[in-house]
Amino acid sequence: MVLEYNGKTIYVDPTGGKEAFESLPKADYILITDIHSDHLHLNTIEAIETSTATIIAPEAVYELLPKNFRQQTEAMINGSKVDYEAFSIEAIPMYNLREEALKYHSKGRGNGYVLTFGKERIYISGDTEDIPEMRKLQNIDKAFICMNLPYTMTVESAADAVLNFKPMQVYPYHYRGTEGYSDVEKFKAIVN
Length: 192
Description:
With 192 residues, the chain is an alpha/beta fold. It is 20% helix and 29% strand. α5 (155-165) packs parallel to α6 (184-191).
């Protein structure tokens, strides 16, 4: 995912190698949500131009980064907030609730994020389930919600959470699981 605002470019969990980013502006900020390779893809981060980028990541990711990247990384814990020139960012917990999925994402290890650009608030869920912290979000303009089994939540749980915290717009993302793609049309039908 790549976001642009006021001349700044933000890469979220960049993967896919250098080729995936060749036609895009270089990153001013790189957000990483978790330690798994579909979020923290070191080969991609090492291949793209990052010399002037600020990396924003959970502490668990910071500990896994090569030393040359740590000096440009802001490690955030759940609940922390940082103001940058172009936006502010709040680290939101992301974790599993279902017993069979607890091994994938433990509470406190990874971050979802709420970015505030002027008056617009954007939520990026990271790999999470329908957690209370998500349901408590307010005034979200755009929400990027994951739903990829067995690692995150079902389409029904994702839709139920969205209907609870009521973002103005919602975008399914990270919806390919071990058994193929989640049913995005079903998600759309439930939330509409």
